[in-house]
Amino acid sequence: MSQGLPTTSYALLGLLSFGDDLTGYELKQRADSTLRFYWVSPAMSQVYTELARLTDRGLVRARQLDPGGPTRYQITGSGRRDLQQWLIEEPPDFPALKHPVALRLLLGHLIEPAEVEAMLVGYLAALAARQQDLQAVRDGLEDRWASDDPFRFPRLVADWGLDYYQAERDVVGRLLTRLRTQTY
Fold first, then answer.
1. Which of 42, 70, 119, 163 sits CB 3.0–4.6 Å from 46 for a disulfide?
2. Helix axes 44-56 and 7-16, enclosed angle (nearest 10)
C-alpha cells in the first residue's frame, strides 16, 4: 500500500527511478528540465524537504561518496514498490485549470481590445518558444523500441506536451480571429 505522500514526492521518486543517484541539486535540475512541461517543478527547498521525508520513510537512500561531499540520493526497492503502488492505486484526477492568460482574458473588459490582442499575440510567441524547448527535449530522447526501455514513456509524455502546446496555439489563434472580427 502506498504511503499517501504528496504528488511531488512521487514525482521526485519517479525522477530517481531511472537508475542513477543524484544530488538534490541534480534532482532539481532534472525536475526543471522535465517536470516544468506538465507538472510544477518544485522549489529547491521543497526538493530537500521531500528528500528528507523520503529518506525518513526508507524510500530513498542518502549517501556521501566523500566526507564533506554532496549527499547523493537513490531510490530504494521499497521506494520503487511504493511508487509502483501509487501509480496503480491513485485514480486519475482531472487537472485544475490555473491559466493566467485565461484569467487575464476574462478581465479583458478592463483594458483596450488592442492590449488584449497584444497579450494573446505575446502568449502565442511564448507558446511557440515553449513548444520549441520541449521539442529539443523530445529530440534528446532516443527512439528505441525495446519493451524494457524506460524512456518510452517520457517520449509519450513529450509527444503529449507537444500536441498540447499546438492545441493551445490553435485555440488562441481562433480567439484572436474572433477578437479581431468582433465575433464574441
1. 42
2. 80
Query: Of all helices (H) and strands (E), which one includes residue 84?
Result: helix 77-89
Q: How many angstroms separate the CA atoms of 11 and 165, rounded?
A: 22
- Both ends of the chain: CA-CA distance in Å? 51
| Residue 75: its H or E element | strand 71-75
Judged on CB neighbours under 10 Å (0-12, 13-18, 19+), 36 is middle
Per-residue pLDDT of the chain (184 residues; tens, 9 = 90+): 566 899 899 999 999 998 789 999 999 999 998 888 888 889 999 999 999 999 999 999 999 988 889 999 999 999 999 999 999 998 888 887 889 999 999 999 999 999 999 999 999 999 999 999 999 999 988 776 667 788 889 999 999 999 999 999 999 999 999 999 987 6
Which phi and psi angles does 19 have, rounded to 5°?
Answer: 105, -10
22-23/60-64 β-pairing: unpaired
The interaxial angle of helices 24-34 and 7-16, nearest 10 deg, is 100
The answer, as to whether pTM is greater than 0.90, is no
Sign of torsion, CA 42 48 51 57?
Answer: negative
The one-character DSSP state at 79 is H
